[in-house]
Write a structure and sequence with these properties.
It comes from Enterococcus pallens ATCC BAA-351. This is HAD hydrolase, family IA. InterPro entries: HAD-like_sf, HAD-SF_hydro_IA, HAD_sf, PGP-like_dom2. Keywords: Hydrolase. One of its GO terms (molecular function) is hydrolase activity. The protein is α/β, with parallel strands linked by helices. The protein folds into two domains: 125 residues, 3-Layer(aba) Sandwich (Rossmann fold); 64 residues. Helix content is 46%, strand content 13%. It contains eleven helices and seven strands. It has a five-stranded parallel β-sheet, with helices on both faces. The two termini are 23 Å apart.
Length: 204
C-alpha cells in the first residue's frame, strides 16, 4: 500500500535548465558549450551535490583552460545559478491534491548546500513532510546508499513509496531498493495515469 510520495526537485517540482541560464552570459555557441561542460556537466558538480567539494574548487577547474573573457561569467554563474530555478505551478497543484488525499510527501534531491539559499523561492516545499538534500548526507543519486539513508532517516518502508525523478538512472536506483518509481517528463497526463494504477486519483 502506497503511503508516501517522494519527489525529485529539478525538472519535477522546478525547472532546472543550465543551458538556458548560460546563454544569458554569451551568445557564442563554443563558449556556451565550454561553460556547460566545465561547470554543470562535471564530476566536480556531482561532488558539489554530494557535499564533498566547494564552488571555489569548481571555479578553479573551470578557469584552468577558460578563455580570459569567460572568467567573470564563470564566477557569476557559480554565484547565481540557483536564481534560475523556477517553480512549476502545475506540480504544486498536484502536490496539494496528494496532501489532501492523506499521503506523506517528501523531496529527495541531488542538491548542494546552496539549496538553503533558494529553498525560500520554492513554495511547494511548504507542503512537504520532509526534505532530503544529498549534500547534507554526503551521498548522491543513483547510488543505493542515498535511497537507504533517505528511507532510514524518515523511517519509511521502500515498498510504501512512489519516487518521481526526471532521470531514468535515478528511477532505476530507487526501484532497485524496492520503491515504486516513475520517470517524470513533465507529462501530467502520464503522471495521472501512473498514479491511477495505484488507486491515486488526481485532477489535471
Amino acid at each position: 500500500m502506497i503511503k508516501n510520495i517522494v519527489f525529485d526537485l529539478g525538472n519535477v517540482l522546478v525547472d532546472y535548465e543550465p543551458a538556458k541560464f548560460i546563454s544569458k552570459f554569451t551568445e557564442n555557441p563554443q563558449y556556451q558549450k565550454y561553460l556547460l561542460e566545465n561547470i554543470f556537466l562535471t564530476a566536480e558538480w556531482i561532488d558539489f551535490d554530494r557535499g564533498t567539494i566547494t564552488k571555489e574548487e569548481i571555479a578553479r577547474r573551470a578557469l584552468k583552460k577558460a578563455p580570459a573573457e569567460l572568467e567573470e561569467a564563470i564566477h557569476h554563474i557559480l554565484d547565481t545559478w540557483y536564481q534560475e530555478i523556477i517553480p512549476i505551478p502545475e506540480m504544486e497543484a498536484v502536490v496539494v491534491q496528494l496532501k489532501e488525499l492523506g499521503y506523506k510527501l517528501y523531496v529527495l534531491s541531488n542538491a548542494p548546500v546552496d539549496f538553503y539559499q533558494y529553498e525560500k523561492n520554492i513554495p511547494v516545499l511548504k507542503h512537504m513532510d520532509g526534505v532530503f538534500v544529498t549534500a547534507d548526507w554526503k551521498v548522491i543519486k543513483p547510488e543505493a546508499e542515498v535511497y537507504y539513508t533517505f528511507c532510514h532517516h524518515f523511517q519509511l518502508v521502500p515498498a510504501q513509496c512512489i519516487f518521481l525523478d526526471d532521470l531514468p538512472v535515478n528511477v532505476a536506483g530507487a526501484r532497485a531498493i524496492g520503491m515504486e518509481s516513475f520517470v517524470f517528463r513533465k507529462d501530467l497526463i502520464a503522471l495521472k495515469e501512473y498514479f491511477s494504477d495505484f488507486g491515486i486519483e488526481i485532477k489535471i
